[in-house]
Structures are given as C-alpha cells and as structure tokens.
Amino acid sequence: MVTTDVGAALPLCARCKEQEGVLDLRSDLICRICFTTFIASKAIKRLEVLQRETRGAKLPLRSQRYLVALSRGPSSTALLHILNENVRRQRERNQRVKFELVVVFVDVDVDAGAEQKGTSQPTASDPAPPAPTNGTAGTVDTTTSRPSSDPTSTSTDVFTTHFPELTIRKAPLSSILSSPAIDWSLLPAQNTSLPPSQRLADFFSRLPSASARADVSRLLIRHTLFAAAAEHDCAVILLGYNTTSLAELTLSEAAKGRGFGIPWFVNDGAFPLPRAVDIAISNSEVGIDSVSKDLASLQTNDSISVGTASTSIHIYSPLREIFRKEILLYLSLVSSSSGPLTDLFPSSSPHAANGGTDRSAGAVVSHRDLSLDDVVRRFFVDVEASYPSVVANVVRTTGKLNRMAPIIPGTRTDTDMGVVGQQCRLCGVGLDLFGDERWKGEIGEADTTTSSAVVEDGNVQGGKRNRLCYGCERSVKGR
C-alpha cells in the first residue's frame, strides 16, 4: 500500500490512467481495480494454456471438469474465487461454460486423543505438486459440507457460505490408508484394530521426526486428492501453489533428497500415475507398446494431449506467476456475496494484507517440532520481501529441468535416466537408482537389501526391495 502526505495528489494508475494509483505492483502504482484484474488475468491465462493442451483437435462434447484442491489457505481460496468469478461471468454473458469445478477439501482427521499422547498432527497447507494415485484404486469417501451450528467450527461451513454456488466435498485423509496406490508394506505398520482417525494418528506417531510427518502427510493428501479426482471423473487437478510456495517446494524437495523428481512436483503438465508402469506390464490385456508411447511422450513433452486417462493425470498451478504477498493483498480487496474474503483469515497480519510480509511466521516453541518445510518457509518470508526476483528465478529455473519418466523395457534411448518399470511406491516418481546408490556410497550407507544390475539393453533393473526413492526412504526410515 502506498502512503502519501496529507493533501498531496496521488499519481494516476499506470494501467488505466483514470483512477488514483494506490497500490505498488512490481514497481508500478496502480488502482485497486487494475490490481485485482491483473491477479485474475494471470490465473486465467494459465487456464487458457491448460485448455489448449487438453482439448485436442476437436472441442470437447462437454465442459472440462477440474478438481480444485481447497486447503482453506489464502492461495487456494484466492484460486477458488477467481475460478468461480470466471464461471459466473461466462454464464452472465450467455457464453459456453468452458469448465466445471469440483472442490475437494482433504480433512486431516487425526484423533485429538492421540494428539494429547504426543502424536504430532500434520497440517494441510496450500497443496503442493502431488504424488498421484493409482488409476485403478477404489474411490474415497467424499461428503458434502453441511452447515454447522458452531460458529467456531473448523469445517468448510464458512467457505460454503462465501461460495454458495459450489459444492465443497470433504475427503478424510484416513480414507487413503487402505489405498492400493501405496505400498504400505514399506511404511510403518498400522494398527488396524483402531478407528480410522486414531489409526491415522498412530501411523504418524511411528514416523521418526516432525519433518517426516509433514512430508508423508503432504504425499498422503495428494493421494487422497487424486483418488477423489478418479471418483469424480476429473482429468485435471488445480492446486493453489503460488510463486513463493513453489520456490519453497523446490528447495525443500532438494533438501529431502528428491531432487530427481523436482520437475514433476513443481512444473505443470501430465503426471504418470504411480505403479501404472507395473500394472501395465503385469496386465496381459494392456499392450506394453501403447503404455511405452504414453510415458515416452510424458518424458519428452509436457503436452497433455499425448497422455491417456489410464496412465497419467494433469497437474496445474494457475497462480504460479503470482507472489504470496500479492495473493494476500488480492484477498483484502475482493468480496463474495457474504462479505470480504479476509473474514476467512482473521489471524492474517494487516501489514501482510496490504502488500507487506508478516515476518513473525509464528512462534517456535521447540526446534524439535519444526519441520524442514517450516524452516524453508520461514527463509522465504524474508527473501520474498527483499528479493522477489530471486524467488521468481527459482521457479523459472526449475521449469527448464527435464522431466524424466519411468522407462518401459525396450524403449531406452541415450538420454534415458530411470529404472525399468518402477516408480517410488510412495511419491510416484520414477526411481533414480544410479543417483540413490551413489549418494548412499558417499555417505557410507551401503544398502544390502538393494540389488541392481545393468541388463542387456543398458537399463538399470532395480531389485524387488528397492521400491522407495531416496527422499521417501529417509522420511520413512529416518536414516
């Protein structure tokens, strides 16, 4: 927000040249209307790219169906408002509605009693680039949000009030605990005699650290989202990541040991379903040639038109060109039919809502309870405020990285880097056996349970037990 002396004339908006410029947008003084238009147009332009890449040669017979991941955070709320307003304007102009929204909130339903016993409850922040679900997995239990008589309820009731045109579905995180998309034999054992919420809390209590709990929680939330996408016939997932949170994700994933998969988690495009390669190879009714063609296309081209519903799902972050501080300012300027959207975030700093940045980021009671994601997030609070171009460059550089897909036997090229028919059984990214084994050797951790060999066609063939990538193995085993 720009401050001026009392009685001084404000300069005109640098865009419309009509209203007074009261907001600082990337070195330009603009008015409130132009600011909200700028934010919305940035997101809609990303949607137009998505639509061009997914519609194919002919117009679809029905509107595309997008699953919007709502975390109840500022970014996903701003995305939901922009999309809802765009659909409303299309209907007012009697235009063909290009997309249909399916809003899903993943309820991290950890039992409160288990928390009091020392179990850390993972938090659901604005969604990160996902770990996909198995296309053949069963559906999750999604329910429609209903109003509650408790005004302090942490449910989605207040969002239903602000967005009455939309149906907000809730999917409990515990519903993914039996999903075949994840190899649960590689994760801590579950106490199946407990109710779902207590079972989830007990599962998280068995993970070695706060960083591990936050990491595995994020991956399970993504599995839940994609199971919901399969249930509601959505081929596209829209996540509320902004420039700042994508930069945070890039650094945190590299620190966790998932540098090989950063392009898959951060960049927009088609994402191969986990274990789709293994399922295709073991299924005699599915030709390996067709699956090889799909995955080879995913490896060399982010164009969605080359993927199929059986092998990939499409992940996009429409807010990827907008900073977090701009999202907060946008929310302070727009309203729904039920009032200002800032009412949804009463704890937000007024300074942050006016374009500044809240450097407090919450008090740290104990560094033992601080996850790696929290550390990176606190670091970028200051970086975004002082050096926003650095934040943007992190995301742009990540966009230039190649996305290496899992390899099907017989499709190897000189540029292939992966493992034949294998993906990480937790995050879904293709295994990088060369990188994993080199890293383990350098730090003196020879994995006796891992066997790999170079077969005749030059591919790396992983042993049966090497089914987690380096990052997931460290989160699960803590070593």
UniProtKB/TrEMBL annotation:
InterPro entries: CTU2 (IPR019407), Rossmann-like_a/b/a_fold (IPR014729). It is found in: Cytoplasm. It holds the Pfam family CTU2. Pathway: tRNA modification; 5-methoxycarbonylmethyl-2-thiouridine-tRNA biosynthesis. GO terms for molecular function: nucleotidyltransferase activity; sulfurtransferase activity; tRNA binding. The keyword Coiled coil does not apply. One of its GO terms (cellular component) is cytosol. Gene3D superfamilies: HUPs. Residues 133-158 have a biased composition (Low complexity). Keywords: Cytoplasm, tRNA processing. One of its GO terms (biological process) is protein urmylation. Residues 115-158 are annotated as: Disordered. Plays a central role in 2-thiolation of mcm(5)S(2)U at tRNA wobble positions of tRNA(Lys), tRNA(Glu) and tRNA(Gln). May act by forming a heterodimer with NCS6 that ligates sulfur from thiocarboxylated URM1 onto the uridine of tRNAs at wobble position. Prior mcm(5) tRNA modification by the elongator complex is required for 2-thiolation. May also be involved in protein urmylation. Belongs to the CTU2/NCS2 family. This is Cytoplasmic tRNA 2-thiolation protein 2. It comes from Xylaria hypoxylon.
